[in-house]
Amino acid sequence: MKNTISVKHLTKIYQKIKAVDNLSFDVREGEILGLLGPNGSGKSTTINCILSLLKYDKGEIKIFDQPMSPDAYEIKRQIGVVFQDVAVFEELNVYDNIDFFCGLYIKDKAERAKCVEDAIKLVGLQDFRKFYPKQLSGGLLRRLNIACGIAHKPKLIFLDEPTVAVDPQSRNHILENIETLRKRGATVVYTTHYMEEAEQLCDRIIIIDKGKIIASGTPTELKKLVKNKPIKEVSGPTLNDVFLELTGKDLRD
Amino acid sequence: MTIYKAFLRVLSRNAWILIMYSAILIFFSIFSVQANDVNLNFEATRPDLYLTNNDEGSELSHSLVKYLTAHNNIIELPDENDALNDALFYRRVNYIITIPDGFGADFLAGREPTLIVQSTGDYNAAFAEMMLQRYLNTAQSYRLIDKSETELVRDVERTLAMEVPTELATKRDVSGLEQAAFYYNFLNYPLIVGCIFMICTVMLSFREGKVARRIAVSGTRPEQVNRVLLLANSLFAFLLWLVYVGISFLVIGRVMWSMQGLWFILNSFVFAFCVTTLALLLANIVHNRNALNGLTNVIGLGSSFLCGAFVPLVWLPETVRLIAHVFPSYWYIDANEKIKALETCTWDHVVPILFNMAIVLAFALVFVLVTNLLSRHARRRAA
What we know:
The complex is a heterodimer of chains A (253) and B (383).
Chain A: E1 3-14, E2 17-28, E3 32-36, H1 43-50, E4 58-63, E5 66-67, H2 73-76, E6 79-82, H3 94-103, H4 109-123, H5 138-150, E7 156-160, H6 168-183, E8 187-191, H7 195-201, E9 204-209, E10 212-217, H8 219-225, H9 239-247
Parallel strand pairs in A: 3-8, 3-9, 6-7, 7-8
Antiparallel strand pairs in A: 1-2, 1-4, 4-5, 9-10
Helix pairs in contact in A: 3-4, 3-5, 4-5
Chain B: H1 2-13, H2 15-36, E1 48-53, H3 59-71, E2 73-74, H4 81-89, E3 95-99, H5 103-108, E4 116-119, H6 123-143, H7 149-160, H8 174-186, H9 188-207, H10 209-216, H11 222-251, H12 259-285, H13 289-307, H14 318-324, H15 328-340, H16 347-382
Parallel strand pairs in B: 1-2, 1-3
Antiparallel strand pairs in B: 3-4
């Protein structure tokens, strides 16, 4: 299977502190890769480096077998990003917001209109086209945020904690959307703090702490790492147990 | 097109502020036009006059009374000294004339008879006296050539009844230029507020951290987005200026087609350009919508008050005028005042106006340079 992303020896130093320390991993075509880690572990820095939003000190990043750089617009056109914070225009309604961000990738009006409609249907905002962001609930805003990131039908999608602060119904809806995107052939890099989400959604998981990969594998493989420890005697360890076992129980910033 | 469309949407969502400031401009301009509308059909003041004619038998005295009655308000009072003095004191009358017995005969005989007059000494009294002197001087002129009292009275009345068409010596429409200067001086305020508020609001929306990040990872070059935004903002400022110039033609009218009108337009164009560069500079500095509201008002109102957009520059204290020199508005408004006084379009007359425009352009150049420095610094910091 081809690699969509290939990261080799990625290192990013912030004022003598290694935020990302010699990180190497691949993301295979069509898979959902979960990037897990406590706060300040280097997940966002890694993603920002991959997206060329940050300059890195060492390493090599390739996307679709092409070196990624700030000027790699051909590659960028095939990437969709859903940031953790809702990033939309307050002055534009739902349709216009999606249309604007989609328009940054697709110039053809008719093609764009179809993509916008598809995105609206995918996230279930059909009844809210004319609504302004201020008129939307938290869950609907998150769905709008996703639609803005994926309307241009990218081959590679970065989802940075898209389900933060939403109710279970909206979360379920968002997870179904991500499944649908994968079925359409997209590769997804997904970061979250919700272990059950990662377990349910991800084909492979990478756990990062202090800028280093401390574990990687399928959810089943990761659970095996703590299988012999007396964490859950009756039902076996959950991914949450694995996470805490590997990253420790100390509070992070 | 996508960026233009979003630009227009953001603009239209904030259009209320433009409408509000434009309405203020139109309201005050119409008010100014009404206030400065010089009616060239003058109507003479009619002083309040008390008149006693003790020379009933004289045609000349009778004619004088007729003339004064026609041009003054004749007030009825008791013919008592106290009552007359009270009336003067309380300004019930401005002027009292008593024609003595034998006045007509003495006048015709060239004996220079004396009229008894009392006056409040105010401008109405002066006007009444002027009318009296006018009649007597005219009569004196005819006395030397006319043979009889009847002929003299006829000639005096004919002369005093004459009307001649009057033309103003200057070709400048002083009233119209006052209105135009008021309009273009006041324009300083809506132009600054409109441009700064709208351009900064749009730029804030596009440069808002999360949205900017999303644009940065997109398939469109940020330089392209910035170029489109710069063009759209410039186009907006140009259209705003065009609308305000259009309004000036509607409100002020004919004077805008004159040579001075064209100078007003040119001067405001240069100023609009300067304000646009200032707005683009502020868009790089202001990152908060609340701060933007405050800043817009401070710059808009502050420069308008200090530089004479609301109150004529000559009324402002020397210190304030000195401080005002650091604002482009001062040079713009000062140029408007010079245009108002412009008689002919010779090189010597227009040099001071061009000098002011050059200073406004120099301000614009400084704003562009500082904006470039800030943008470079921001790009380096982001990298």
